[in-house]
Amino acid sequence: MTLEALIRDRGPIRKIGVIGMGYVGIPAAALFADAPEFSRVYGFQRDSPSSGYKIAMLTRGESPLKGEEPGLEELLKKVTGAHKFECTSDFSRIAELDAVTLSIQTPFANKDDLIPDFSALYEGIRNVGRNLRPGMLVVLESTVTPGTTAGPAREMLEKESGMVAGTDFALAHAPERVMVGRLIRNIREHDRVVGGIDPVSTARAAELYTPVLTIGKVIPMTATAAEVTKTAENTFRDLQIAAANELALYCEAMGVNFYDVRAGIDSLKGEGITRAMLWPGAGVGGHCLTKDTYHLERGVQQLGKDRLDYPAGEPSLFVLARTINDFMPRHMFRLTGDGLARAGTTLRGSKIALLGWAFLANSDDTRNTPSEPYRDNLVAAGADLTVHDPYVTHAPGVTLSPTLEETIRGADAVVIFASHREYRSLDPRQVKKLSGKKHPVIVDGRNLVDPDPWIATGFVYKGIGRGDKNSHLIQE
Ligand code: SAJ
User: How far apart are the C-alpha atoms of 398 and 372, rounded to whole Å?
Assistant: First the structure.
């Protein structure tokens, strides 16, 4: 019997399972459950010590996610109240379903070797394989190395089920594109890339996602193209940021204001003309841009080996972009040392007030924050530091100062790493008074402050991209 016949016999998708009750799976499950086309949704969650608590919470209609997620709590209450959604750790119930999606995180085992840890995802895939039935649809939502869906995932599902993908069951990749703080909106409004291992799988996956899209459209393609799309869309953003960072470093070296140059470049408008210049800064953090480039690179090494035509011996432009972005915290360290030297002191024994531990403005997310390597450089150079972040209550290995005043008191240098809105209103006179220094240093990693009032108050100013100000005369 062909897959098409099996799907026809099964009829429209009615019962769905979502594996992995995290910030991707929870809104996905709630939105599936809210769609009238579907009759029942199970959220599958391992009853593990660290996250088993979510099962009871979710079944009560409460979200275990921290931070504001507009619309999520009421949606969960609605679908649990309507008995359309429940959370369970009983994976055998997968056998009752028409479609299963997997939203299990794929972190790096450790930052150095940049090898992703697929163990949790593979465990989820094997759980699905053991309970797979003919005509079912399996969709991977996790960010994976190109080649995973049609390769290892397919092999594991076939091995565990004894069935054949594309003949007995449908298999696809539909990468998540959600951002914390706007999960529900993103799933409804972003276009959804849907890639099957074959056209029948693509069509069945499109049937699954269409009901939850409001203004978003389904973008069909192959599973591998979908994996490349997801990893490349973040690789490209990282590349654009690296281009801005490199130009900012050049502008500093040439005594030019990067932001004037950026405005000049941006002024070139017209049919099909675009420069999409992003912003330089103290560095690139988070769990998307810092890893998706390496997923793409591993994909081309594995899938494209012996076939890739690329300038011999030259590094990947995309990996070079990662190198430039990871250099920015070191550049901030250099600016700090240079600033202190101009103020007649050294890093050793100085007190640095580090403003911003989150990797993103106005966020409490600290994953892969560029503030961390900067802090390590300071400690290695014998400097003392205090850290402030209005959104971060605790971070491993970091003592966060309770107030901005306490952080700045007695500081030789104030260094801005995150463009939290609170930092925009820093007053140079007040900061200087708190620092108690004749020529305190201000290092602006996010182009947050206007250099002139700080310089006029006697600060030594250093700013990313501010070649026009970084060697200013020191006002007595
Ligand atoms: N950054 C810069 N300059 C810029 C933009 C960002 O230095 O011009 C830095 C930020 O400070 C941060 C890092 O890059 O440290 C990442 O910032 P981000 O705005 O890309 O935020 P992320 O990492 O949360 O990226 C997510 C991605 N979304 C998904 O993977 C689903 C990305 O695809 C989105 O484009 C991005 O959000 C977004 O636009 O909000």
Answer: 9
Give the C-alpha separation, 162 to 158, whole Å.
Answer: 5
Q: Which two tokens stand for residue 467?
A: 């070649």
Q: How far apart are CA 231 and CA 222, in angstroms?
A: 15
**Cα 453 to averaged position of ligand 1 atoms, centre (Å):** 30
Residue 451 CA to residue 475 CA, distance in Å, equals 13
CB atoms within 10 A of CB 279: 17
- Among candidate residues 54, 84, 230, 291, the one labeled active-site is 230
Residue pair 166/197 in contact by the 8 Å Cβ criterion: yes
Its sign, for the CA torsion 361, 367, 370, 371, is: positive
Describe the strand order of the beta sheet including 170-173 as a list of residue ranges: 85-88, 40-44, 15-19, 99-102, 137-140, 170-173, 192-196, 218-222
Token couple for 422: 């609170």
pLDDT band at 111 (very low <50, low <70, confident <90, very high): low
Whether domain 3-216 has CATH 3.40.50.720: yes
User: Above 90 in pLDDT, residue 182?
Assistant: yes
Does the predicted model carry a pTM greater than 0.90? yes
How far apart are the C-alpha atoms of 470 and 281, rounded to whole Å?
A: 15
Q: Which CATH class is domain 220-476?
A: alpha beta
Is residue 251 within 8 Å of residue 461, measured between CB atoms? Answer: no
- Concerning whether 230 is annotated as a catalytic residue, the answer is yes
- Whether 3-216 shares its CATH topology with 220-476 is answered yes
Are the beta carbons of 182 and 72 closer than 8 angstroms? no
Q: What SS3 class is residue 138? A: strand
Residue-range domain boundaries for the chain: 3-216, 220-476
Q: Where are the beta strands (DSSP E) in 189-314?
A: 192-196, 218-222
If you ran DSSP here, which 8-state letter would residue 459 be given?
A: P
Backbone angles phi, psi at 240, to 5 degrees: -65, -40
Q: Whose CA is nearest to atom 20 of ligand 1?
A: 289
What the block records as the tokens of 117 is 């840890």
Any ligand 1 atom below 6 A from CB of 57: no
Integer Cα distance of 163 and 170 in angstroms: 11
**Nearest CA-CA partner of 171 in 154, 146, 188:** 154
Distance from Cα 170 to the centre of ligand 1, integer Å = 33
Residue 458 confidence (pLDDT): 98
CA dihedral of 188, 191, 197, 200, whole degrees rounded to 10: 70
